[in-house]
Amino acid sequence: MVALYPVKARVTRNASRVTLHTTRTKKGEKQTMIQKQGQVIYTNKAACQDCYRCVRVCPVKAIQMQKGQAFVVEKRCISCGTCVRECPQGAKSFRNDIEKAIALLSHNKVAASIAPSFVSLFGEWERASLPSALRKLGFSYVAETAAGAYYVAKKTGEIALKNRNHPHICTACPALVSYVEKYMPELVDILVPVMSPMVAHGKYIKEKLGADTKVIFIGPCMAKKAEADREENRQYIDCVLTFTELFEWFSREEINLERCEESNFNEEPHGDSRYFPLTGGLARTAAMSNDILDINFLPLSGFDEIKEALENISPDSMTLIEPLFCHQGCINGPGIPKEKNIFQRRLELLHYAEKNKGTVAGDESISDIEISFHCEEISERKEITEEEIRKVLEKTGKTREENQLNCGACGYPSCRDKAIAVIQGMAEPEMCIPYMRRLAEQRSDKIIETSPNGIVILDDKLNIISMNPAFRQLFMCTESIYGKRISYLIDPEPFEKLASGEENFIKTTVKHEAYNIVCHEMFYKLEQERQFVGIFVNITTTKDSQEKLKNLRAETIKQSRELLEHQINMAQELAKFLGESTARGEELVQNLVRLAEEKEDQKKDRWLKDMYM
């Protein structure tokens, strides 16, 4: 069993869309994801790390980049699940329908149709216990989808043999059907007009048990969810779960296969239909061919194989093309937990199918299982001029052919393809990693070149390998000294300490007498590059200002002391002068008083003399 985290979901509805709120819990971590009605694959923005992995692996380039975030464009998506399987951050996810399945189980009759690839996931005793485990979940009828696959294979063989004048493309794989409808509409007419095994089995179950029976398909494929959503299939399939969801459901309900008794499925498939999940399985089931070298039969798996074959198919060939979108077939679907390697899964299915031969078909059958397909060609801007492409290439510095690296780092096979995607609004110019690296280098070079601080870089032998204009100006040198030792210009001691490992980082202030400058200096080592960097900040002006301020302060103190002494002397002199003036004034007053008294006496004597005479 696969250890999975519990998932809780709730569905809210309005007139325009259905939004699924899914909360995943892992050690208290919660994530909420939202998608539109019908959308199967979507992005968890919080986990998307701007790596372009999904763009690279998406076979139809249905990923749109917006401000570094990768979004799935629903109308372009074929729901193959490749991005879900390949995303290293788990940022791509698919619609979880466990809650929908639980809601369906409230009906009296719910049937489980389990894809034949289930064999590759379970051991022998687990396969025997699986029907009981499904019944514990509430299913009243449990059957293998291979039962429907038998009738699909037979019908496909009949149509192919009846119309030998053109090739036929088998339609068991919903991702393949969606790809042809959207991206190769010219081939829609040669799609075999037959239901897939899932839909055919759902129809068979409802005809057998009643139209009110609900059918839940369980398999390895995410594209089956989109197939079940198609208008023509909704009446036959009510819900689709992946094997990953099934294990989550078992975990939530604490159902352990070890504690489930062995039991049988409610029906046995016919013929070789248990081989159906493997490439060539349809042709074998239809008894058309067991030879992979048969000239009239072309089994394919994996998108690259399919794309090349469909682009080069001969219109007058009678070849029956059996394509399965996943490499090695349905046993490698994105909805399968990858505990076993693909070759082990294939071997187990082969052993199981060989050991458990299907029953001989009787009179029972499914009523009309033919179906029609239609073009859903992506409506895009058709006219893209060479001038528009040139402008995009010019913006990223790729106008010259030698600069078009076609490295694929952006996710597109060529620089031209990426330029077209930019014009279509699917890509951004910044997705070009060489272009962004060049911009970063240009910015860093510009910062160094325009820095007011002197910067010099030395190799491991302390030879000058780079210096900026500010350094050349500080130390009055030119580019002609490249390759010379730093001792040619300044004392190499700080660099020597770094080279010896004595210091890792040095900060100091030095006066360079030869250049009449004072610098605040920092030195450090670039370990991986085995280089040494020196940064010189010119603080000569600051030092001169400090010296001038110091001298001014000293001169001011001196002058202040002189002024104080002068004031004291002046005060003393003024006091002396004031004292002398006071003494003289006192003497003058005394003389004036004395003179006044003498005059008064004279007047008195004269009066007496006049009186007695």
Q: Say how many strands there are.
A: 19
Structural class per helix/strand content?
alpha/beta
Count of discrete structural domains:
5
For the largest beta sheet, what order do the strands appear in spatially? 16-15-19-18-17
Strand content: 15-25%
What low-confidence regions span 5 or more consecutive residues with pLDDT below 50? 1-35
Total helix count? Answer: 18
User: What share of residues is helical?
Assistant: 25-40%
What form results from the Cα inertia axes?
A: elongated
Radius of gyration: 47 Å
Give the integer mean of the pLDDT values: 84
> Biggest β-sheet, characterized?
5 strands, antiparallel
Distance between the termini: 166 Å
In short:
The protein is α/β, with parallel strands linked by helices and 613 residues long.
Q: Could you characterize the architecture of this molecule?
A:
With 613 residues, the protein is an alpha/beta fold. The protein folds into five domains: 1-95, Alpha-Beta Plaits; 96-355, no CATH class; 386-439, 3-methyladenine DNA Glycosylase II, Chain A, domain 3; 453-537, PAS domain (Beta-Lactamase), CATH 3.30.450; 539-613. The protein has helices spanning 53-57, 82-86, 98-104, 124-137, 146-162, 174-183, 197-209, 223-229, 243-253, 281-285, 303-311, 342-355, 386-395, 415-423, 433-450, 469-474, 493-500, 540-612, and strands at residues 7-13, 18-26, 29-33, 41-43, 63-66, 69-72, 92-94, 110-114, 141-144, 168-169, 214-219, 239-242, 297-301, 320-324, 454-458, 464-467, 505-512, 517-526, 531-538. The strands form six sheets. Strands 16-15-19-18-17 form a five-stranded antiparallel sheet. Strand 5 and strand 6 form a beta hairpin. It is elongated and about 190 Å long. The model is unreliable at 1-35 (pLDDT under 50).
